[in-house]
Each structure stands twice: as structure tokens, then as C-alpha cells.
């Protein structure tokens, strides 16, 4: 089986779908001839032709609006928003149109669109190239929000997202495009080759939306993470020496509540890890769901380890970033509580 | 320290009249019917740049069809158009009254703008798609959409085709080429372009027609849609329904003091037509011209439909609070129903007796539909199964929706 990094895996997913489904097409800023600023669409225009993968004006609202119209026609457009930080001009389209169209038209029209966007920090991108906006999509019913943590999942989840008949926000953790990153920024960079999840089949396969992955079994505490934070969690667990169970959500909507509940009922403790700022973040929803369903199994308060409630700061990247040390401290606190 | 230059002055546009003033439209330049040239449909955009500043009119004050834009329609088509417009007006009046009687929560009339939807619905094909505004039920009337389904939607009752999920009059009717409406103005303008691009992508022959109000041209949606339509040469007709009023804000607040809405097309390299929106024949000719351009891969056209919102914005609005009483009667381009009727009479194809008979027939059709809808139930007396509240959020409900439905005991 070939080894791929996440960029290659995503590219392979798009290539497979352009090949297998003539109703798919890709557009976005710089995605055509050039192949995207992160190279995810590299070679697709050359291979599949101009109309299957082309450049769009710098107009996130226009990109998503036209994609919705195409979806209503019967196509399966896949659009790229260059950075998730730039998605806000499209927010009205996503909330008022994509998420509501099926409901308000009683199914006469719907928008089977996939909106890809690189997200998250750890790349010294400052406040406009580092944000994690997943909570503002999770809050909007009618949207699905998917976040892979390795190349194998990235390809399978992206194909599942494209084939899904509901609008999907597909957030790509750009810090781990080229290799896993566990938050230890002073270590040598890793590549995907030889890492779990880097062996990726050439052809079509799917990873279903709404199914979490149990990354590590453990007895004493459940750690919930997604995206880059799955790798940070592994480092934090190792550093703490705690026998923790690690769940990679893979999609936050739909949410695999069963896996979460089964794990927390077993361990009795839970730490939620995300890069987005804490207040109003998706960790708040997870925490509420867990206390509603697992209250009598809990041995200690649920902890949230997250970005601080500041904009993403440039010089303070590693002070902001919820790295393995902060997780390890939380795990130990949780056990001692 | 002050410089020698004059003090800067902030300009806030104000309309020529307010309540208590005599209504006037003297500030409008209305050219006589038949005076705007009709270039060939295949003309390059560079040869069309005078059109956004003209006003395409076919019907003159005597009800005669004059000039190069005369579409030379058969009397049968004219009568079908008149019927759709009159049905719209009759339906609107009846449903507006029903709102006043407390039988529904909300209503919006198309009064004064009936020609637009009725005419363009007839010009475009059954497989084309309109992305309408909420003042275009005449599109559905021209295609014989069942009146009782409109009534049931307005009552949000057990037979509501939209299952009680949508505000009255925000219809959706895919089989009738009518895209799902929303109360967020403007947010479907780009979807019209995307739909048209999809048709071109597939090599089909369908086109789209999108609508936005003059007030909403200030939204980014308008400029995004024009950009995409221009860049990708989308087979779409983009219409600005300029009815002079965005709730209480006159068109000057959207920029009408210094240019026309049709002229917005110029910077996008698109043809812009400015059309008398109360003139059924002018709308027909302009739409046909733009549709032919779109179908022959010549791309999009922007059409400003110059009209007047004769009624309030909605049942929640009272225009006597912000514009002079009697403005509608002074509108220099008249009433679209009366003008088409006058034309048919002038042709010898219509008379007062037939008109009264048609009016009686339509009044009865609306009365019967309302009666049928009331038998199912008006708002609050009947509604779809509450189960429907949880359906259609996603293709399949997820566990949240299933749990919440159970929490509600259903």
C-alpha cells in the first residue's frame, strides 16, 4: 500500500471522485493550474480538464453561493476556502442557505456541497492563518463538520463527505499536512512515512462520518480530541504516565456520542482537548453532553484544555497552543481530584 | 487649524416627498415608449453601453405597442398574461384580508409588480429555474400552480407542502421552476449563477433567472453574483426589481440618485437593460433578448425592472408613515394590469364585459381555494404532524433529533 502524507491523501480522494463521478467539480482560490497554496489540488486540472478544477475569484461568499446553486442543480461541488480564517464572508451562505435549504423546501432542493478549509495553528500564521472555527459550524444544525487526523482518515472522510447529501465543512489541520505534530515544537519535524495512518489505498474507500476512532485504550481517564490535537494528546498522555483512553472524534457533527459515553462510563474521568479558544468552544458542548449522560460515573470534574480566549497571537504561538505539558498537567489533576 | 477648503458636508439622501406632501415623480426622466434602440442579441457588450441609461418601453399611453422592442405577441398570450396578473392581484387582496382577520401570521402582496413574474414565467422554459424574490407569486400563477397549495402554505396547515416549516409566502416549487424562497433578501442571487453554471458544466440547455430588490443591490451577494456570472459567462438573467422602496428606504439610499441599477452591469462587462417593469410587452422582449443571449453562450444580462411597490412592504408595514399618500396613483408608468388590459382593448381583443367575467371567475377560483384551505384549517387550527419539525434538517435525522423528538413525546 502506498505511503501518503495528508496532502497527497486528500489529492487522491479528489482525484478518485473526479474520476468516478462526472458530477463532481472543484473550484476555489488558486486551486486550478497552480494546485492550491497547500498543493492539495495539484495536477487535477491538468488530468481532469479546466471545467473540473478551476480558479475562483477572491470571494468566499460567491464561491459558496455558486456551489449551493450547483448542488441544487444536481452536481457535487467541492470548494476550497484557502484558510478557514477566510470563511466568514461565506458564513451567511452556509447558515442561511446551505444548512436550511433542505428543511425549508421540504427536500425539493438541497446542497450536497463539500467546503474544504485548512485550519488550526502551530505554523506561525498569526491570527489570520491559525484559527479553529469548528464550533461556529457545529452550532448550525443542518451542517456537518469533519476533521481528520491522519492521511488514511483524511482520504476516506473526504470521499464520504463528497458523497454525502448534506453540506459538509471539511476542516484540514494544516499543521499535520506533511507530518504528525505532537506539540513538542522543539523536536525535529516528522514526516508521515512510517507513522500510523500513512498507508493509504490508491482507490475509493470511505471512512463513515460520525464514527470516532479509539486511538489508545486506557482505564483511568478518557481524552477526547480531533485533528492535530490527537497527536498532541498522545504526547501529553505519554508525558503524564496516566493510563488514558484516547478518542479521535473525526467528525464533530455527526457526533459519535456512543463511543464517548461508553469510554467515560468506563474510565470515570474526561479531559477534552482542542486548539480553539475555550469559552463557547466545542469542548463546552462535549462537557455538557458527558455530564448529562455520565454524571453518576464521573469521579472528577471534566477538564477542558484549549486555546486561551485571545486572538491567535503570533509571538506567543507556543504559549497559546495547548501542548502536551498542559494536557499532562490536566490529566494528573483529574486523577488527583 | 482650518484650511481654506470648504467645510466637508455629509450627504444623506432624502426622497422628494414625505407624508403630507403632494406625491411627485418629476425627478424621474421617463422617455416616450418605443424610443430605445434594439440591438441584435449577438451584439458585443461594448456596443450596448447606452442601454442601461435608457428605459425600454413598448406600450404607449394609448395602449399601443410601439417601437423596435415590440415582441408582437398573439392575443392568446396577452390574455394568458393578463389572467396570471389579475389572478395574482385577486389572490393577494383576498389573502391580505385573511391576515387582517387573523387567519395567518404574515402576508406580502405583489401589487404593482405582477407583470414581472407573470411575464418572465411565460418567456422562460419549463426546465429553466427562477430564483425569485417574495413578490413573485405571479410566476406560479402563470404556470397554474394549485391555488389551494398556496393557501395551505400560507395557513401552515396539515396540507402545507412545506410542512409548516416556512413563513407564509416563502414558497418552494421545483416542478414549477421556482427555487426555495427565504426571508434573507439577496442570498439566492449567487445560487442562480451557480445553477446556471451547472447547466453549462453539464452541456445542458437550461438557463436560470435570479432576482434581487434594488435595496439589496447594496449587499455583497449582488456583486459576488455579477462577478461570477461575468467571469464564467454563466447562462443566467439577473434582474433587479427596482420598486423604489426597501421597506421605508427610498431607492436613493441604495444609490439611485447618481446612476441606474442597470448601469451596475457596466463595470462587470455585462449588458444592462433598463426596462419598464409595468409594461408586460417590454419585459417580454427584454427577457427574450437576454434568454437568447444566455442560450447561445453569450453569458449573463442584468435587467433592471423599473416599477413601483404599490402596497406596503408586508402586513407588518404601513407606508403612510414614510411616503406621501396617493403616490401609487401618480406613478408615471401606471398600473401593469390596467396597461395590458388597455392594450388588449385597443387591439379589439378584449372588452369590459370579458374583463368583468374573468374577474368574477378568478374571484370565485380564489374563494374556492381559500374555502378548501380553511376546511383543512387556518393558522393555529391545523398543522402538520409535529414530527415534521424534526425531519429534513439532514437527509437522515441524527441522534440529537431523534432524542429531542422523543423528549417532546413524539
Q: What features would you highlight for this structure?
A:
heterodimer; A: 337 residues; alpha/beta; Rossmann fold; 5-stranded mixed beta sheet; globular; B: alpha/beta; 5-stranded parallel beta sheet; 35% helix
How is the topology of this model organized?
The complex is a heterodimer of chains A (337) and B (410).
Chain A: H1 6-20, E1 24-28, H2 44-48, E2 53-55, H3 60-73, E3 76-80, H4 91-98, H5 101-104, E4 114-119, H6 134-138, E5 144-146, H7 151-163, E6 168-173, E7 213-216, E8 221-225, H8 229-240, E9 244-248, E10 251-253, H9 257-267, E11 270-277, H10 282-294, E12 303-307, H11 317-320, H12 324-336
Parallel strand pairs in A: 1-2, 1-3, 3-4, 4-6, 5-6, 8-9, 8-11, 11-12
Antiparallel strand pairs in A: 5-10, 7-9
Helix pairs in contact in A: 1-7, 3-4, 8-12, 9-10
Chain B: H1 75-100, H2 114-123, E1 129-131, H3 137-141, H4 147-155, H5 189-202, E2 208-213, H6 220-231, E3 236-242, E4 245-246, E5 249-250, E6 272-276, H7 280-295, E7 301-306, H8 327-330, H9 336-347, H10 352-376, H11 399-407
Parallel strand pairs in B: 1-2, 2-3, 3-7, 6-7
Antiparallel strand pairs in B: 4-5
Structural class of chain B: alpha/beta
Largest sheet of chain B: 5 strands, parallel
Structural class of chain A: alpha/beta
- Listing every helix as H and every strand as E from the N terminus to the C terminus, the arrangement of chain A reads HEHEHEHHEHEHEEEHEEHEHEHH
Distance between the termini of chain A: 46 Å
Return residue spans of chain B where pLDDT drops below 50 for at least 5 consecutive residues: none
Principal-axis shape of chain B: globular
